[in-house]
């Protein structure tokens, strides 16, 4: 498993900066060309490889007009095709869901999923229609990146201990030497992203090299609920990453205040421009409405939130051999509708980061991550299954007459979904509701219901910080 690392340039001079910018600018059209020609069902969707594209371009002379070295455009072609393949894979996730909605027949499902996986969906009318629906034709938006193959760059340390990274420029045998702000040399394929007057060097390292990967996982099975006040609440009632809420609130307040100030400055600049005072308008735009500081602050905030979330995931895996969590792939589809609302944007990003942390930490430390259908897990009472009333962080079950802590209740429900015989990952929302309804009806008519260890679990939800006591108490009770 790979983990991305970023190194930054330190005081890059303007000549080198301009040279790298020019190279990235010329590579933008390479990506656009790949997206336009092969970003559809007849291109990458038909199993076309980047080597074939390179051969075609060499034959028809497409590559000549970009004005960059061969390695630079070839790596860019490979990278753009990988982007398209990712795009295709996320469309397939949607189509898989549609398959589950369409049929309950295991044989039919298996046939369709196999066809989808092997890119043979064009022959099946249902799959073809779904693919056309979910695979929106994309276009290239990347004009600030240079991909450098592993054997095309090198690093050297100067007499003062500074690390320099040398990458190919626009001319053969003319390397651009970039001073880095780190002493750890980037390795493997590099992605240079030019942002705000400096270079970000993105590269991947093997996760097994990281110290945190050496720690073994625990041996329990733990359900987790993802939140915004705390990153994770587990089914033992313990909260992890409790500084998350504070970080998100302060960032949201800061962004709102900053956006308000920027709007005011922008209107002053516009007024000045209307008056004919273009010098003033330009001064404000350049000095007060820049993006360099803004983008760096945003990156710093993201780094802090990620640290909090990853630490929380590590705490859970410390005790878990199996982590049961909500499947979050669904929520990414709605990303476009979030608009300018600061809170919603932060929340969506946080949710994605939490999902990533659970996947990454589980994989590195050898615990299993089980995704379950989370429909109604935050509303149903984990003891009787009826839908309760939510008041802030409390869930009131009128049937049991008990108030649960909502996130702990949800984590227990999520844990129980892992062994649920009726509710599978892709069971539709309304079907889940019906199943829960049927179970509580059965309960009412006094038929036996699977409810083996609810006594322990119930106590955990009531006393989230005393989970260690629950075992001894159980023995006393019985
Ligand atoms: Zn209840």
From TrEMBL:
Name the keywords, alphabetized: DNA-binding
Composition-biased stretches (Polar residues): 464-478
Q: Does the keyword DNA-binding apply?
A: yes
Renumbered residue ranges of the record's region Disordered: 439-478
Give this protein's Gene Ontology molecular function annotations.
Answer: DNA binding
Q: Does the keyword DNA-binding apply?
A: yes
Coiled coil residues, start to end: none
**Signal peptide start and end residues:** none
Instruction: Cite the Cas12f1-like TNB domain residue spans from the record.
Output: 356-414
The source's domain of life comes to Bacteria
- InterPro entries assigned to the protein according to its UniProt record, in alphabetical order: Cas12f1-like_TNB
- What is the name of the protein in this document? Cas12f1-like TNB domain-containing protein
Q: Which organism is it from?
A: Micromonospora sicca
User: What are the top taxonomic ranks of the organism?
Assistant: Bacteria, Bacillati, Actinomycetota, Actinomycetes, Micromonosporales
């Amino acid at each position: 498993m790979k983990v991305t690392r970023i190194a930054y340039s330190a005081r890059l001079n303007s000549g080198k900066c301009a040279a790298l910018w020019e190279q990235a600018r010329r590579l933008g059209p390479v990506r656009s060309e790949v997206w336009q020609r092969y970003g559809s069902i007849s291109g990458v969707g038909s199993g076309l490889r980047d080597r074939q594209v390179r051969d075609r371009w060499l034959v028809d002379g497409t590559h000549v007009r970009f004005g960059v070295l061969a390695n630079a455009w070839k790596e860019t072609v490979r990278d753009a095709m990988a982007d398209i393949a990712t795009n295709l894979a996320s469309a397939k996730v949607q189509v898989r869901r549609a398959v589950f909605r369409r049929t309950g027949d295991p044989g039919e499902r298996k046939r369709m999923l196999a066809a989808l996986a092997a890119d043979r969906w064009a022959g099946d009318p249902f799959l073809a229609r779904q693919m056309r629906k979910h695979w929106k034709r994309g276009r290239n938006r990347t004009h600030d990146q240079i991909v450098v193959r592993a054997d095309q760059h090198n690093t050297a340390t100067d007499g003062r201990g500074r690390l320099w990274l040398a990458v190919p420029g626009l001319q053969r045998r003319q390397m651009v030497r970039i001073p880095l702000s780190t002493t750890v040399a980037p390795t493997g394929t590099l992605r240079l992203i030019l942002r705000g007057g400096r270079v970000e060097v993105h590269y991947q390292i093997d996760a097994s090299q990281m110290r945190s990967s050496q720690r073994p996982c625990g041996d329990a099975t733990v359900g987790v609920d993802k939140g915004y006040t705390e990153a994770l609440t587990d089914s033992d009632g313990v909260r992890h990453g409790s500084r998350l809420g504070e970080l998100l609130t302060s960032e949201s307040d800061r962004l709102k205040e900053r956006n308000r100030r920027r709007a005011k400055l922008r209107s002053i600049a516009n007024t000045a421009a209307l008056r004919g005072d273009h010098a003033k308008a330009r001064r404000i735009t350049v000095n007060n409405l820049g993006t360099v500081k803004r983008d760096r602050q945003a990156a710093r905030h993201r780094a802090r939130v990620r640290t909090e979330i990853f630490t929380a995931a590590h705490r859970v895996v410390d005790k878990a051999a199996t982590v049961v969590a909500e499947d979050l792939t669904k929520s990414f589809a709605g990303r476009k509708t979030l608009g300018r609302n600061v809170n919603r944007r932060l929340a969506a990003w946080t949710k994605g980061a939490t999902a990533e942390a659970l996947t990454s930490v589980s994989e590195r430390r050898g615990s299993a991550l089980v995704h379950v259908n989370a429909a109604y897990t935050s509303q149903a009472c984990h003891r009787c299954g009826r839908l309760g009333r939510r008041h802030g962080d409390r869930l009131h079950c009128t049937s049991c007459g008990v108030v649960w802590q909502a996130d702990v209740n949800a984590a227990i429900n999520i844990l129980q979904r892992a062994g649920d015989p009726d509710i599978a990952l892709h069971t539709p929302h309304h079907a889940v509701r019906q199943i829960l309804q049927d179970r509580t009806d059965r309960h009412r008519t006094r038929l036996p219901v699977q409810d083996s260890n609810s006594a322990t679990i119930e106590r955990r939800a009531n006393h989230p910080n005393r989970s260690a006591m629950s075992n001894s108490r159980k023995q006393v009770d019985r």
